[in-house]
Design a protein that fits this description.
heterodimer, A: 109 residues, mainly alpha, 66% helix, B: 388 residues, alpha+beta, Heat Shock Protein 90, 2 domains, 5-stranded mixed beta sheet, 7 helices, 12 strands
Chain lengths: 109, 388
């Protein structure tokens, strides 16, 4: 009985994926906006990990052209995203995953 | 120069030396820092150019990352980038002890220049440029400081000597004043003392009644005490510069003669005298050696306790005069040869005795040692080279 429960739990986790994949990747894929480009733009503005996470979290909750890391021209062709409906925990988890996936530290030679 | 003068002088010079050393160290440090500043400014203009080149390369890498991952290197310098939160992104520095508070500084033989980026390429806010330090300037500056130290040291030593003389002048004046006073007093004492002693010699005490005989003995004790003091004063003020009349004589004979002279003083304090005298020949002025013996015997009486004893031991090359008196603490022993210093303030005298003993002993190359214990007594030991 316990063995069956473990199998269902593992399968459920595999299908659902992380918060970042579920809530960010799918949407960006459909709009064609590269997550790496947005990361590098964010890096130019925020520099450090904690600073970037805090800045992006605020933007996702209260989107505006002024606080976006994308250039103004970008919004001539793309609409401003709607405020996120994710909880703080989900946002933190997604942003941590985002940082780990695209960070520069440890990747230069 | 008196020991107290020497002590004051030593203290003054130590204080002066420390003060001058402190001032010189501060000046040297200020000079060193200012020269370091000049040297760093020279480096800075070059390193600003290096930083501009590196920022340009970082921008290019930022645009090409992650396809291009090789951190830009330059043969002229090493560099490192740190983010806003002081986390190292990448470094080729030899010395990674970085300082975010100064724009240029020295560290472990390297010079670091810190440039703050306006756009955080690759997330970098701080760019560190590192070049090896030219050690020659440091040696050159230390050479300047050493040279200045020598020149200033000589000048300050001369100034110190002048100030030290000014410093001890009041003390020297007081001593001179006291010496003059003693000289005048000695001169005035000569005639009345001669009259007292002459008349005492003429009186036949055996013809006096018991009561008068005691009174007479007290007068004789007092007169001999004053006479000893007078002889000391005369030696110090009038006879010190007189040439000595050295001859070979037996010290034992001289001591016996002086013990006889002091007999009345021993009896006045009910002291027992133990003598152990062997023949000991000396080539010296008997008048001066009598001053030595008189002063030591006088102290042995003066600082002894009634009913105790005085022991005089003479061997070839060694004289010991010991008492069972009040004794001294070790720190008192150190200062006891000072002129005008007394064993204790309760006893009379000018404190000239041991100063005279010391002068005479030094003149004949004799050594004086004092062994004393507070409350137990004092032994003065004079040694000389046998046959001298």
């Amino acid at each position: 009985m316990r063995r069956k429960l473990y199998i269902w739990l593992a399968a459920g986790l595999f299908v659902s994926g992380g918060s970042f994949d579920t809530h960010c990747v799918s949407c960006h894929r459909s709009t064609g906006v590269s997550l790496r480009d947005t990361f590098m733009n964010a890096l130019l503005v925020y520099s450090g990990e904690q600073n970037m996470k805090a800045g992006l979290k605020y933007f996702l909750k209260h989107p505006s052209i002024e606080t976006s890391v994308m250039p103004r021209e970008y919004f001539q062709t793309h609409p401003l995203k709607a405020p996120t409906t994710l909880s703080d925990e989900e946002l933190d988890e997604a942003l941590s995953e985002y940082w780990e996936r695209y960070k520069v530290i440890g990747r230069l030679q | 120069m008196l020991q107290s003068e020497r002590k004051s002088l030593r203290r003054f010079l130590a204080l002066y030396g420390l003060l001058m050393l402190g001032i010189f160290s501060l000046l040297a440090y200020g000079y060193y820092r200012s020269q370091e500043e000049v040297m760093l400014t020279r480096y800075k203009s070059r390193m600003i150019d290096y930083a501009a080149d590196q920022i340009r390369r970082l921008r290019q890498l930022h645009e090409k990352f992650p396809e291009e991952r090789r951190y830009p290197r330059d043969s002229r310098f090493r560099s490192a980038i740190y983010d806003l939160e002081y986390v190292q992104i990448f470094s080729t520095l030899r010395d990674n002890r970085v300082d975010f508070l100064h724009d240029i500084y020295r560290s472990g033989g390297m010079i670091h220049y810190v440039k703050l980026l306006d756009s955080y390429y690759l997330g970098a806010k701080y760019l560190f440029i590192e070049v090896p330090e030219d050690r020659e300037w440091s040696l050159r500056i230390l050479g300047h400081i050493a040279l200045a130290g020598v020149v200033l040291g000589v000048l300050l030593a001369l100034l110190g000597y002048y100030l030290a003389r000014l410093f001890v002048r009041p003390m020297r004046r007081s001593i001179e004043l006291l010496d003059n006073f003693v000289q005048d007093t000695t001169h005035e004492l000569n005639t009345p003392l001669g009259a007292i002693l002459g008349n005492i010699e003429m009186i036949d005490s055996s013809r006096l009644g018991e009561k008068d005989r005691r009174r007479f003995e007290r007068i004789a004790v007092a007169a001999r005490t004053v006479s000893t003091l007078y002889e000391d004063l005369k030696f110090l003020t009038l006879e010190r510069h007189r040439p000595t009349e050295d001859r070979r004589f037996d010290m034992a004979e001289l001591i016996r003669e002086r013990l006889e002279y002091f007999d009345v003083l021993f009896r006045s304090k009910n002291l027992t005298v133990h003598t152990d005298l062997q023949r000991a020949y000396l080539y010296a002025d008997t008048r001066l050696m009598a001053r030595v013996v008189d002063n030591l015997l006088s102290n042995a009486v003066k600082y002894n306790r009634p009913g105790k004893s005085v022991t005089v031991t003479l061997r070839p090359g060694r004289l010991v005069i010991a008492d069972e008196g009040v004794g001294m603490a070790p720190e008192e022993v150190e200062e006891i040869f000072e002129r005008y210093r007394r064993f204790n303030e309760s006893e009379g005298g000018f404190g000239l005795g041991l100063d005279i003993v010391k002068r005479i002993a030094e003149h004949y190359g004799m050594q004086i040692r004092i062994e004393s214990r507070k409350g137990e007594g004092t032994a003065v030991i004079i040694t000389w080279k046998e046959g001298s």
